Amino acid sequence: MSSPVPDDDAVGTVIHSARKLDADGEVDEFWLATEGDRIVETGHGETWRRLAEGREIVDAAGRRLTPGFIDLHGHGGGGYSFDNGPDEIMGALATHRAHGTTRSVISLVTNPLAQLRESLGYIADLTELDPLVLGAHLEGPFLAEGRKGAHNPEFLRDPDLEMIKELIGAARGSLRQITMAPERPNAIEAIEVLVEAGVIVAVGHTEADYDQTVRAFHAGARILTHTFNAMNGIHHRMPGPIVAAFEHPEITLELVLDGIHVHPDVAHLAFTSAPHRVALITDAMAAAGYADGDYRLGTLNVTVTDGKAVLSGTSSIAGSTLTQDTALRIAVERAHVSPTDAVEALTATPARALGLGHELGMLKPGYAADAVLLGHEWAVEGVWAAGRRII
Ligand SMILES: [Zn+2]
Predict the structure, then answer these.
(1) Could you say which of 283, 325, 341, 370 is catalytic?
(2) 283 belongs to the catalytic site
(3) How far is CA 67 from CA 35, 47, 64, 311, in A?
(4) Which tens digits make up the pLDDT trace of 109-158?
C-alpha cells in the first residue's frame, strides 16, 4: 500500500483490487479513479492501469472499500464538543474522520436563543469553508420536558415562529435539520414554516402518540430522531411514533447502534421493518474516541464510565461514545444485518435523508471521492474525503 501522505502533484487517486461494498452490494476486484473531489471512473480487474498516469496508486489487496460514512447526528468527540466553537468542532470532526466519518451534520443541544444564534453563525462559516461539514442540526429547544434526555429543561419551550425565523436567519442557509416534539402547541405550523425554508424536520424527544406523529409527517417531517430513545415505545394497543415511522416510506429512522441505546435484536427489527430507511448515527458526545471521565454536554454535567455516558448522578443516557466504524461492526456482528444493508445505513441512507443521494454515499462515477478502506473486523485502515487521503 502507498504512503498515507498525499502526493500534492497527483491529479487524483486510483484505488484498485478492492472488495467494493456499498448500497448496491459487494464486487470483487473493484477499482475507482478520482479527480479533484469526485470519483470519475470505476471498473474491475486490471483496466485501471490506463488511468494510472499522474495518479497516486493504492493497492487495496482485497480489503473492503466503502463510501465515506455520513453522520446525521453527533455532538462531539476526541474530548471536544460541537457547542464550544469552531476549534472544538474541527477537533471533534478529526476524531470521527479517523473512524471513517467523512461528512457530518453538527448537532447543537438545547440552549438559550442568543447562544444558539452564535453557534449557528460559526457553523454557517464552517459549512461555507469546509465541504465535509453539512450544516447544523438543532436538537431543541422545542422538545418535550417528559422526554428531555440530556437537554436542560430550563431552555425547553413551545415552538415560536419569530424565534424560528431568527434561527433560520442566523444559520444563513446552513440549518439542515431540527428535532422537535410535534405535540407541543404551534408545532404543526412550525414544521410547515421550517419545511418551506428547506430545513429537514425530525420528530424526537417527544411524547407524541401515533396520530400526532402521523400529523407531523403529513406536515412535512421526514426523520425520526434516535428511534426508540426519548419517545414512546411500541405497545400493542398504542403503536406510537415508531410504528408510524415504519408505515411511512418517506421517513428515515435514526438509530444509535452502540449496544447501549438499543438492544441489537431490536435494531434488527428496525432494519427489517423499515428496509433501506435506517440511518446509523453516533449521537456522540465529547468522550467518543477519547476517554472515560467527567464532561459537559451543553450546560449539563455528564459522567462517562466504560464508554457509557449518563447525566452525572443519574441513570439517564446522555449521548454516546460511538464512532461509525463501531456502529458498522455491531450492526453486522450483533444485530445480524447484512454488510450491504449496514453500510447503506451509514452512507446512502443518510445521504438520501439530506437530499444529497445523487452525490454522496455511493462508490460510483460522479459521486464525491469519499471512501473508507476496512481491514480485519471492520478496522479502518484508510479514509479519503473529497479526494484527499486523510488517514
Ligand atoms: Zn443528540
Answers:
(1) 283
(2) yes
(3) 16, 21, 10, 34
(4) 999 999 999 999 999 999 999 999 999 999 999 999 999 999 999 999 99
